[in-house]
Amino acid sequence: MIDLNSIFQGRLTDYKWKQLGEYLKGRNILAGKGIRVENSSSVGTLISALPVEEIAQTEAPPFSVRRIREVSSTSYAFELQEGWVIERKTAASANSIQFHEVSIGGQPMSTKPRPEITVQQNEFVYVAYQTNAEGLVTTSTPSIYISSDDKSSQHHQPPSGQSSGGAAYGTGGNYFIKLFKLTIEDGGPKITVYQQSDIEHTRLPTFQNVGGERYIHKQWNGTDDRYDFRTLKQFELSSGTTYGKVIVDAQGNEFDAANDAIKFSAIAQRADSDDPQVKVDDNGGGTITITGNDVDRVIEFKDCDNVPVGKLEFKDGLLLAASQTDVDTSGFPHTGVSVGKCGS
Hints:
mainly beta; 2 helices; 34% strand
């Protein structure tokens, strides 16, 4: 390492002048990582970046073509890299991730020597498998499928809207995952690639109403790709009334957080009396009982000769029966004191 301190210590010599020249020419360069320094007598110092070495891919992508050979002028044999259908399960008792290796002619794609498929001009190569209505793969081994048709997949439709124990609605899925298509141009094969990766199978969740009576979840709407739920409808006695509502009105916008809980009106007795005429009792088991004021009375009407001419009977504060509905009480005050006609 050359530094100015060592050059200027002591007297100057031809050697030190040479060292100073080397220092000023910048021949001593500390190159960092990835930099190459080369000294040349003709052009001086050459500085260049080291070439980046590409990491060679150790394995072909899943379902990619490894080898191809001509069978005839219109068909070719293909050897494919093995691939998998990956199924993710969310049930607590299930293995959450399951790998289904795809087969060719009943043999796993990883079999050695690798099985071949023969594809004709304008044919598609698919991975085919089926599911049940819950979206779980039912095919023991998904397989390579070849067809001249551009086939469409049918996604499973989950059972929905039924109560517990029901199995109505819902359909299984029939999947065709397109890998590539073979066409022949100018006497040679041309491959149009659609997928070169493992297949992630996607399933839809299932909603189920439990218990009986009315169901909140109506159905899975496959046409619109959504779940439909029923709406609680407010019933009012007549338009414009302010009574009779069961569901409490929303506070502001229905979608505000204040309305996350659906509130229902309560049945209550008058709170301004220690002994209300109508009483409300909740037994805590779902039954609300409405009663009167526990007053039982019989009001009897008599004529001037003290002969009964009619009566009104009350039970729990409510009129229970009347032995005669047309009683002439014009001569009697309500207190029962005999005045007027009989006292005249």
